[in-house]
TrEMBL record:
<dbReference type="GO" id="GO:0015074">
    <property type="term" value="P:DNA integration"/>
</dbReference>
<keyword id="KW-0255">Endonuclease</keyword>
<feature type="domain" description="Integrase catalytic">
    <location>
        <begin position="32"/>
        <end position="190"/>
    </location>
</feature>
<dbReference type="InterPro" id="IPR050951">
    <property type="entry name" value="Retrovirus_Pol_polyprotein"/>
</dbReference>
<dbReference type="GO" id="GO:0046872">
    <property type="term" value="F:metal ion binding"/>
</dbReference>
<dbReference type="Pfam" id="PF00665">
    <property type="entry name" value="rve"/>
</dbReference>
<keyword id="KW-0229">DNA integration</keyword>
<keyword id="KW-0540">Nuclease</keyword>
<dbReference type="InterPro" id="IPR036397">
    <property type="entry name" value="RNaseH_sf"/>
</dbReference>
<feature type="DNA-binding region" description="Integrase-type">
    <location>
        <begin position="268"/>
        <end position="320"/>
    </location>
</feature>
<keyword id="KW-0378">Hydrolase</keyword>
<keyword id="KW-0808">Transferase</keyword>
<keyword id="KW-0479">Metal-binding</keyword>
<feature type="domain" description="Integrase-type">
    <location>
        <begin position="268"/>
        <end position="320"/>
    </location>
</feature>
<keyword id="KW-0238">DNA-binding</keyword>
<dbReference type="GO" id="GO:0004519">
    <property type="term" value="F:endonuclease activity"/>
</dbReference>
<dbReference type="InterPro" id="IPR001037">
    <property type="entry name" value="Integrase_C_retrovir"/>
</dbReference>
């Protein structure tokens, strides 16, 4: 009885994310630097609005010399932060770092910082999110800076007047970690102050010439740097020992690859109506690899296979007794955003011999005599600028009674309510230009939009077969009968022996180039079968996408169906794309039934028709997907039998399943997939 109660409690999700737990504090891992400006860290301090209009302090510190500065700024826009960093540190003071370390705030992770980093060949790295300890040096500098300002400041609204004095005091004092002052280590001289200008020291040191000064300076700095590295190493090691002992690192059990964990969402309670009753844990996730202080995880179930790198401090182990029922939150984990670097300019295109310039305005095409584009429905309206044509078409669609003069006036500049990407009507007008394919790359995002429009037009009039550049191969695992697979593909391989599954798959993939491998698995409740499926998934290279589906099933034990569903949900892939259309997949167009329920209620052909529709609606890339027909069924079975050495009855006769009859044909699902969002 006691064991049953313990197992029940350990399998309770609410108990897991509500009860207290021992936090997994990761071991301390100091950054190792060898010379000045190797790593520079940045952060923002929200102090409050001052009388001069400043609210934030941009704090910057060099991790080797510990030399830091604070720059008062009015806001934390990307342009403002980058301007302060350039003028007060990188370019204005000649201190361009090799590596810039920041958090994941938008003020640092944006296209402006990314473009500047490319220009000066600076590597920009960020913390993993909600992990201030990963940027501990600048956080400690922030604390010292604010303590100094707070002690000296008499009027709170005038705090920005005290920032230069606080920075001067910090850089003038010997730092405990380096054993010397940040000012000396950065510039080779100590800060000059009024207290030092007394007696013999007031006259300074005289040198014979500049060469002697440079030689002595280099020698002294080299000695100082060697001393700093050794002193810093000892200090870091001492602090690491104290930190690890304080948090009992040696006694903690951290997640290992294969373990299931929950991820903490710290922002979940912010703004919640009942923060004390709000769950801040999300999962479950599967750990696929670990470092010294973080883990790389992927969702255990679901179509979203996004990889996250999370510090151990924000993870929590899941007991073995708990199932994989999703634990959801309203908010998600903060992560890096994909930024597009684009140089937006407003200038004429004067050089057509180079394709490296990108503009937001294009005033003529590349023809020897620039084309004049006629706008339909406007007899006297002819425009030479392609970008103005796009705006004019959208303006006339919104108001057909607009006069020619008004259209030409409003088309001169960007309008927030208009899209800068041409509509299909605009593409038809611009297609009159013979050099269209050459100059679309001169405008931001037009090249991708043109290729998409071209692919759609080609598919509309010439069919999707011309765009099918990918290939697929279907593997039927042991236990799957050909009569339960209503596919008319040539490359259908029937695998008979579980012991040789991986070997046969690899051998078949060597015979031809394959982009997508489809695994058709049988209805099974055996862990051995699941291990065979998982081994085959891991055996394929990451360049090949994998789709897992199950064969047609009917009249099965529903208790065993739950076990089968759980086995399929546990399938995962460490590297590469994996799409699992499992038994618990919700079929929205079929009364939100599960795919297993749809299979039970349908015959074989109707099940595969529904599966084909799911592939199309979910935009899953399955090239040359085609259902079997009455004419191709016998040919398909014969080809598969010859390729695999299988014998049997094969795919039986196919009959119309209702008044609509059976459907057959091919969907161009791989046509222009690189322009579409694929799950």
């Amino acid at each position: 009885m006691r064991a049953r109660v313990e197992n029940h409690v350990k399998s309770c999700q609410k108990c897991l994310y509500t009860n207290d737990y021992t936090k997994m504090v990761a071991p301390l891992t100091p950054y190792k630097t060898e010379y000045p400006l190797q790593i520079v860290a940045c952060d923002l301090i929200d102090v409050g609005l001052s009388t001069q209009g400043n609210r934030y302090i941009l704090s910057i510190i060099d991790l080797f010399t510990k030399y830091g500065i604070g720059v008062p700024i009015p806001d934390k826009k990307g342009e403002t932060v980058l301007k302060a960093f350039i003028e007060r540190w990188a370019i204005g003071e000649g201190r361009v770092p090799e590596v810039l370390l920041t958090d994941q705030g938008r003020e640092f992770c944006n296209e402006h910082f990314q473009k500047f980093a490319e220009l000066v060949q600076m590597k920009h790295i960020t913390t993993k999110g909600y992990d201030s300890r990963a940027n501990g040096c600048v956080e400690r500098f922030n604390k010292t800076l604010m303590h100094t300002i707070k002690k000296q400041n008499a009027v709170a609204a005038e705090w920005d007047d005290q920032v230069p004095f606080a920075v001067y005091a910090y850089n003038s004092v010997v730092h405990k970690t380096t054993g010397d002052s940040p000012m000396f280590l950065m510039y080779g001289r100590d800060a000059k102050g009024g207290l030092e200008k007394i007696g013999d020291d007031a006259c300074g040191v005289s040198y014979v010439d500049m060469d002697e000064y440079k030689n002595l300076l280099v020698q002294e700095l080299n000695k100082a740097y060697a001393f700093v590295k050794e002193h810093a190493r000892q200090e870091q090691q001492e602090y690491k020992v104290l930190f690890d002992a304080k948090h009992r690192i040696s006694q903690k059990s951290y997640p290992q690859p294969g373990a299931r964990v929950l991820v903490e969402i710290p922002s979940e309670k912010m703004g919640a109506r009942y923060p004390k009753l709000t769950n801040k844990w999300k999962g479950p996730y599967r750990v696929i690899s670990c470092t010294e202080n973080s883990a790389t995880i992927v969702p255990v179930a679901g179509s979203n296979q996004e990889t996250l790198k999370i510090p151990f401090d924000n993870l929590r182990n899941i007991p073995q007794q708990m199932d994989n029922t999703p634990v959801t939150t309203k908010k998600g984990r903060a992560r890096l955003r994909n930024t597009v670097v684009a140089e937006i300019t407003e200038k004429l295109v004067t050089d057509h011999d180079h394709d490296i310039c990108i503009f937001s305005e294009l005033y003529w095409c590349r023809c020897q005599r620039p084309c004049l584009f006629a706008i339909p429905g406007q007899k006297d309206l002819r425009l030479q600028s392609p970008t103005q044509v796009v705006r004019a078409v959208q303006l006339l669609q919104k108001n057909k009674e607009m006069t020619r003069a008004d259209v030409m006036m409003l088309a001169q500049k960007r309008l927030p309510m208009l899209s800068e990407i041409p509509t299909p009507e605009a593409w038809h007008i611009l297609s009159q230009c013979p050099t269209l394919s050459l100059w679309v790359k001169d405008i931001i995002s037009w090249k991708e939009a043109f290729e998409l429009q071209y692919a759609m037009t080609l598919e509309k009039w010439l069919g999707p077969e011309l765009l099918q550049t990918m290939s697929s191969m279907v593997f039927c695992f042991p236990g799957v009968e050909l009569k339960s697979v209503a596919l008319a593909l040539k490359h259908v391989k029937l695998l008979k022996d579980e012991d040789t599954v991986v070997e046969r798959i690899r051998k078949n993939l060597e015979t031809r180039e394959v982009n997508v491998a489809v695994f058709v698995i049988p209805f099974s409740t055996s862990e051995q079968s699941k291990d065979s499926w998982q081994e085959a998934i891991h055996a394929l290279p990451k360049e090949i996408d994998i789709i897992v589906v199950f064969s047609h099933i009917s009249q099965f034990d529903h208790a065993k169906g739950e076990i089968f569903t759980q086995l399929v949900k546990e399938l995962y892939r460490l590297d590469g794309k994996l799409t699992v259309l499992g038994p618990d997949f919700t079929v929205k167009f079929n009364l939100n039934r599960t795919l297993l329920n749809v299979s039970d209620r349908s015959n074989c052909l109707k099940y595969w028709e529904d599966l084909m529709r799911i592939v199309k609606e979910e935009k899953i890339i399955w090239p040359h997907l085609k259902l079997a027909t009455l004419e191709s069924a016998e040919t398909n079975q014969s080809a598969a039998t010859e390729a695999t050495g299988a014998s049997g009855s094969g795919f039986g006769p196919i009959r119309a399943h209702n008044s609509r009859g059976s459907r057959s044909g091919s969907y161009g699902l791989g046509s222009y997939s690189k322009f579409r969002h694929n799950r």
